[in-house]
Write the structure tokens for this entry.
Amino acid sequence: MRFGRTFEEFEVGAVYKHWPGKTVTEYDDHLFCLLTMNHHPLHLDSNYAEKTTDFGRNVVVGNYIYSLLLGMSVPDVSGKAIANLEVESLRHIAPTFHGDTLYGETVVLDKTPSRSKDDRGVVYVETTGYKQDGTVVCVFRRKVMVPTATYVEARGGEQPGRPEPMPTTKEI
């Protein structure tokens, strides 16, 4: 199973459609708000949201949407990353509500070999998140430092650090 890519495997213009999607529940939203201490009533108080906002219902907190889309992209983009270097931009385009299902896709905008180390490079990508009806909800651009194939092989291959199973008593 692929988990991330080496620098050589990225192609400018390639589009990675992240699968599967994720249906956002009220529980997801509330838990994220509680974990991050975001107590804004727009996210937590349905009476407030219904009576005092333009949306008429709770809006899922935007940082959860970003985090979810970032996580969706890991197997395709940053699963082998040495470091996430920069989030250049983050735009919330439309609201997400409890019960919406999010999907994401990432396009490779550019890639640059490292100037200081020949075993890595920087990949510049844009990830777009959209709902089940195709409405774009979030777009962000980031730079990720990824290893070359040489770096991966020198550190144990595709699954470094994975232990081998112990022999059973029948095999001894």
Q: What stands out?
A: The mean pLDDT is 94. The CA atoms of residues 101 and 142 lie 23 Å apart.
